[in-house]
Structures are given as structure tokens and as C-alpha cells.
Amino acid sequence: MRVPELRVMGVDPGLTRCGLGAVEGRPGAPLRLVKVGVVRTPADDAIGARLVAIEAGIERWLDEVEPDAVAVERVFAQHNLRTVMGTAQASAVAILCASRRGLPVALHTPSEVKAAITGSGTADKQQVGTMVTRLLRLDAMPKPADAADALALAICHVWRGGAQNRLAEAAAEAAARAGGGTGTTAAAYFRGRGRAAGYSRGTTN
Hints:
Structural class: alpha/beta
Largest sheet: 5 strands, mixed
Number of domains: 1
Order of helices and strands: EEEHEHEHHHH
Oligomer: single chain
Mean pLDDT: 84
Radius of gyration: 17 Å
Low-confidence stretches: 181-205
CATH superfamily: Ribonuclease H-like superfamily/Ribonuclease H
CATH topology: Nucleotidyltransferase, domain 5
Distance between the termini: 29 Å
Helix content: 40-55%
Number of strands: 5
Number of helices: 6
């Protein structure tokens, strides 16, 4: 059974720059870039205004990209408490925006993403950006690094989430056969969100 393509929007949360990137594809097949960029907010604005701006930016992206799932970087402890708090707040906004639309949200740690993209959980940003550029067959590395990191999150989830969806679908079909019912498959799940699992879409740049 062919694994359905998945369109994933990755979010590298941050207050000053919130990286956003969307890719489309399936495990074991070439991936396609859908869109990449950042949402920026002025450092001297009030925190409430900055979060509202990030929410508006993410909502615009969700409208345009129409992803099947959203992958957000899992916040981890840092020495700079102010930085980690801002990252956590931006992360919460991204999770809220996706969940409000009923979209699946996955959290991936930086080391998980690095390992998936480069094979090493300790890779630096340059290495991640270089691999993202190669995997998506881009002419140049996405800038700033937050944008490349968002694409890395999306790629990581396509590879990991695609396999998880296939297992879930196989298990649901097996249960349906055993019980004589139709069951709820991953394909039906995505169709319920207005997307057929076997769809074919062109790339939007």
C-alpha cells in the first residue's frame, strides 16, 4: 500500500523571528518545498502585541498552505530564561492556531530534528541548513536560519509522521476486518479534513 503524501508546516518558534516552512512528500520519496519564511516582531513592542502579530502571521500561513499537520519545535531548557520564555510563548501560539483548526500537532526536539536531517543529533545550524538545501533541491540555503530550521522540522515530521500514519492505517484496517466493520483509517481521517489520502498536488512556491 502506497503511503499518502503529507503536507507539513514546520514552526521554529521565537518572538523576534518565528521561522515557518512547509514541505510536501512521503518517506522514501523526494520532498517538495511549498513555502518558507519568517514572521518578525519588533523587540521593543509589548509582549501582547508581539504574540498577536505572531498569531496573525501563522493564521495567514495556515490559510495559504493548508497543511495536513503542524510540527513545532519542542521547547527545552536554556541558560537564558528570557529567551526560553519567549520561545515557549511563541510555541504555544503556534499550537493554539493549529489545534483551533483541528490539525494534528507534533512536537520534535532539536536533537530529534538534527538526527533525522543530518544523522547527528549534535549537528550545527550550518549542517542542518546545508542538508535542507540538498533534500529540497534548492538553489540556495534558506535565510535566516530560523526559516531553514522550520523546514527541517517539517521534513522530520514527514519522515516520522508518514510512517506513523501508515502503521495507524494498517492497524485500523486489521481491526475492521476482524470486527467486520469499516473502521476508521488514516485515509478517512484526512478525508474528514477535506483532503483525500491519495491526492496529488502541485508545488506552490
